[in-house]
Write a structure and sequence with these properties.
Elements: H1 3-35, E1 43-44, E2 48-52, E3 56-63, E4 76-83, E5 90-96, H2 97-103, E6 109-116, E7 121-127, E8 145-149, E9 153-158, E10 162-170, E11 177-186, H3 190-216, E12 238-242, H4 256-259, H5 261-288, H6 293-312, E13 335-339, H7 353-357, H8 359-369, H9 371-381, H10 393-408, H11 413-433, E14 479-481, E15 487-489, H12 500-505, H13 513-523
Parallel strand pairs: 3-6
Antiparallel strand pairs: 1-11, 2-11, 3-10, 4-9, 4-11, 5-8, 5-10, 6-7, 12-13, 14-15
Length: 527
């Protein structure tokens, strides 16, 4: 595939993913509008219990002062605080941030720095740890809105552009704050913004997909044929190969992470295109039962490129030859990846095989590639884990091989075979999850650099010659009338047929018994 077409696909993919992000954002706003409003029309947060050992709990609220935003960016803001059982009167106030921070100068207080959802929680920091207690808040005249007293306190405020601070404290400025807080906002702009984002995102997504498909149009790449024209029994149509270099550098692996940066950048852009193209391929399979060949070749090329870089770098360290910047096969490079193009694919499997059916394999791949560590962190800490990764069995064994290579100058062959087997398992599952084949990946480690699916089977033994047929007795001659009234022996193979006999024999040069008898019955009365 030419560089110009690849760049066009990448640009279209970025456009499509931008559109997809806008669609997701618009849909989220529409869902919030439909499900998160109370009876008064406020979009409310879940109840969060806040506690502080200081006299003031403060949170910043930044509403950029720009003409792009309306004069009241959040509409009407409502903050409701209920004291925990046994708590005294509460105070809630909103004021310009500069005024609040000046008022709290020299005061020890706690500031909320981050709020996260599911479950709702916040991070805080202590400010002026050696400071004293805050003054009583009701005497200050800078509050834009405030509420104070025993029981449940509700503050309402018409939002405005600028930098603001929200303060929660005991009304008598005593230490020890404990309350259940709900924050809400009422605005008429949320739904129109959501619909606008979703509609514009759909246009960008459709345009990106159309441009990607148009850029990929062209003659399909010729499918590589395995040597010998046939495959070994039990082979799988996804084949990953690698040839271990006999002379590997002892120390080059220390800097390969720098050398592959250009490849990593290009591959990141290519994978941006693979994601929406795989979705398009799934829709095409669902309705036609076929994987679009141009998309198949592109996705296969990205997988092949990825495997070459991984083989050069830290998924194998099997070669010191720099990977080529290309999607097409390269027989001269010691790493290759191939998937046989499927003529037909199941329409029903496309809905379940990439997630439900592949779950057992995902668990194995997570152990090999290291995703189990990120999953465990997410399970334990929720969204605090963020984007996490860990070293799997492949990375660990490649590190062991690198240390051995550094001190002995050789790559242990059994270790190399095991590493290639794990990579082969991972790429088979990846091709299956990308809908490229319907055959379920086998639960086995095919060790070694040469994939069993790429090794030709021995030729089939020649078929023994069949025994000669037994001679058959010559057919009894049948007398037919020839020209001039003489009889002609129709059963004599040596006598050439002529005249009426040839016409009676027909094109096949033979006549069945019923036809012969009819001809004799016709001739006899004439005699």
């Amino acid at each position: 595939m030419r560089t110009r077409r690849i760049l066009a696909v990448i640009a279209a993919a970025v456009l499509a993913l931008l559109g997809l992000g806008l669609v997701v954002s618009g849909t989220a706003l529409a869902v919030i509008h439909a499900t998160q409003r109370d009876t008064a029309g406020y979009y409310t947060s879940p109840v969060q219990r806040v506690q502080s050992s200081t006299t003031v709990l403060m949170a910043r609220l930044e509403l950029p002062d720009t003409p792009v935003l309306p004069a009241s960016p959040l509409g009407t803001v409502k903050v409701t605080a209920r004291p925990v059982a046994g708590g005294g009167p509460l105070f809630i106030g909103i004021a310009p941030r500069s005024a609040v921070e000046g008022w709290l100068s020299g005061t020890r207080y706690e500031r909320i720095t981050d709020v996260r959802g599911r479950p709702l929680r916040s991070d805080t920091v202590i400010v002026n740890a050696d400071g004293g207690a805050a003054p009583v808040p009701t005497g200050a005249g800078f509050w834009a809105a405030s509420a104070s007293g025993p029981g449940v306190q509700t503050l309402t405020w018409t939002s405005g552009r600028g930098s603001w601070a929200v303060v929660l404290m005991n009304a008598d400025a005593s230490t020890g704050i404990a309350a259940d807080v709900v924050v809400g906002a009422r605005t008429a702009a949320l739904l129109p913004i959501g619909l606008s984002l979703g509609g514009f995102g759909l246009l960008l997504l459709a345009a990106g997909i159309v441009l990607m498909v148009a850029a990929l149009r062209g003659p399909p790449e010729p499918a590589p044929d395995p040597a010998g024209g046939y495959l070994a029994p039990g082979s799988y149509p996804v084949r990953l190969d690698g040839r271990l270099d006999p002379q590997l550098s002892r120390w080059l692996w220390l800097v390969k992470w720098i050398l592959v940066v250009p490849h990593a950048f290009v591959l990141a852009l290519l994978w941006l295109a693979v994601v929406p193209l795989s979705f398009v391929a799934g829709v095409a399979i669902l309705f036609t039962g076929r994987y679009p060949r141009s998309i198949f070749d592109f996705n296969l090329g990205v997988l092949r490129w990825t495997w070459r870089v991984s083989y050069y770098a830290y998924s194998a360290l099997g070669t010191d030859r720099y990977p080529p910047f290309r999607l097409r096969p390269d027989a001269s490079y010691p790493a290759d990846f191939t998937v046989d193009y499927p003529r037909r694919l199941s329409r029903g499997l496309v809905l379940v095989k990439w997630w439900l059916l592949a779950i057992p394999h995902y668990l194995v791949v997570a152990l090999f590639a290291g995703g189990w560590w990120a999953g465990a962190n997410w399970w334990q800490h929720g969204n605090r884990a963020g984007v996490a990764s860990g070293v799997g069995l492949i990375g660990l064994l490649v590190l062991v091989a690198a240390v051995i290579l550094a001190f002995s100058g050789r790559y242990p062959k059994p270790l190399y075979d095991f590493v290639l087997g794990m990579n082969r398992w991972c790429y088979r599952v990846l091709a299956y999850a990308m809908l490229m084949r319907d055959e379920y990946p086998p639960f086995r480690l095919d060790l070694g650099g040469a994939d069993p699916g790429g090794v030709p089977a021995p030729p089939a033994p020649p078929t023994p010659p069949s025994p000669p047929a037994e001679p058959t007795a010559p057919a009894e001659p049948t007398a037919l009338a020839g020209e001039g009234g003489e009889l002609v022996d129709a059963g004599c193979a040596a006598a050439p047929a002529s005249g009426p006999q040839r016409r009676a024999a027909g094109r096949g040069g033979s006549m069945n018994l019923h036809s012969r008898q009819s001809l004799v019955d016709t001739i006899e009365p004439s005699r």
